[in-house]
Amino acid sequence: MKYYLIAGEASGDLHAAGLMEALLREDAAAEFRFFGGDLMAAVGGTLVKHYRELAYMGFVPVLTHLPTIMAGMRRCKDDIVAWQPDVVVLVDYPGFNLSVAKFLRSRTRIPVYYYISPKVWAWKEYRVKRIKRDVDQLFSILPFEVDFFGSKHHYPIHYVGNPTVDEVDAYLRTRPKDAAAFAADNRLPPGKPIIALLAGSRKQEIKDNLPDMLRAAAAFPRYQFVVAGAPGIDPDYYRQYIGQADARVVFGQTYRLLQHAEAALVTSGTATLETALFRVPQVVCYHTPIGCVISFLRRHVLKVKYISLVNLIAESEVVRELVADTMTVANIKAELANLLDDKLYRRMMLAGYDEVARKLGPPGAPGRAARMMLDALAGNRRDGTATRPLP
């Protein structure tokens, strides 16, 4: 069968590549065409456009690059219609993907599956109506979404497990811990404990978060600070913020870095969950401009109590979140001191991580998603509806 996938950022590229590999195991004749990244391209198929050409964050960057984004969207829609896949699989990236889904619903009979739902439970809950209207099957990787969509909005979805569990599990099973080799490979002082800095995957996130992380780091000279370089970000971009700070950037080694870290400062996102699965105590750091205003909006507009996946899955505060006006150098220092020096505090956080792992379930998410997708497509064919009817 022919599968058209759309992923708009580094994490989507990673998860979509895992799904493609699982689809190939279930469907040896699978053909892929996609908007995505290098990991998807490594699996095989045709990369139509790289996510780096469309991944902009924040009102001003999006507005500035709006012609590029709109041209990319037109290209995507036209390409899908020309290729006529058996199914389109959307991977997160809601602003772009929900527009594609609406187009496909109104203009074609191609079924639309969503793998990794938009986070409508946090804000923009009105988008649920669009999902129910335009998406044929939704495959969730977060356990609490089953109740949100099914019970609250009467839209049954499939929970398949979380692919990050698979990715971390596969890494830990195949990569034994070797601190000396990690230090030697990256020209780090051997034997000096490491604190990982995961400052986000986009330039704006790095600009907003890394400087304060580094200022806080200066208060802990017994440790060395290592920054996880994001895919597609030039090393020079990091250098302008690191300056004379005692920190090193490593690229393509985020899991290896977490494997050897004593603690971590993490910008919210999938990285918070990865850090928890590596059992590294962390503090979530997310700076935003006009912090007081954002904090007000968070209290009165956002629909959830937490921003980190760890706390959302646990449904309690496992890790401290320093967001907007609480994201200060002083607060980072205080929380990092707790992580490093308070053994009871660390043990309680690790116990919280255990609960998160239990709720996520065992590895196997991409395989389960692939089998469910093929079953759904086969069901359509048995019913004589290989493609959905036009509205």
Which secondary structure elements does this structure contain, and how are they paired or packed?
Layout: E1 2-7, H1 10-26, E2 31-36, H2 38-43, E3 46-50, H3 59-64, H4 66-83, E4 87-91, H5 94-107, E5 112-115, H6 127-134, E6 137-140, H7 144-152, E7 158-159, H8 163-174, H9 179-185, E8 194-198, H10 203-217, E9 224-229, H11 235-242, E10 247-251, H12 254-259, E11 261-266, H13 270-277, E12 282-286, H14 291-300, H15 309-314, E13 320-323, H16 329-341, H17 343-360, H18 365-382
Parallel strand pairs: 1-2, 1-4, 2-3, 4-5, 5-6, 6-7, 8-9, 8-11, 9-10, 11-12, 12-13
Helix pairs in contact: 1-18, 5-6, 10-11, 10-16
Helix coverage percent: 40-55%
Q: Spatial order of the strands in the main sheet? A: 3-2-1-4-5-6-7
- Quaternary state reads single chain
What is the residue-mean pLDDT, rounded to a whole number? 90
Query: What is the CATH topology descriptor of the largest domain?
Result: Rossmann fold
Kindly report how far apart the N and C termini lie: 24 Å
CATH-level-4 superfamily name of the largest domain: Glycogen Phosphorylase B
- Output the CATH class name of the largest domain: Alpha Beta
Instruction: Sketch the major β-sheet.
Output: 7 strands, parallel
Number of domains: 2
Radius of gyration, Cα only, in angstroms?
A: 21 Å
Q: DSSP helix count?
A: 18
Low-confidence stretches: 290-298
Shape: globular
Beta-strand content estimate = 15-25%
Please give the CATH architecture of the largest domain.
3-Layer(aba) Sandwich
Structural class: alpha/beta
- Number of strand elements: 13
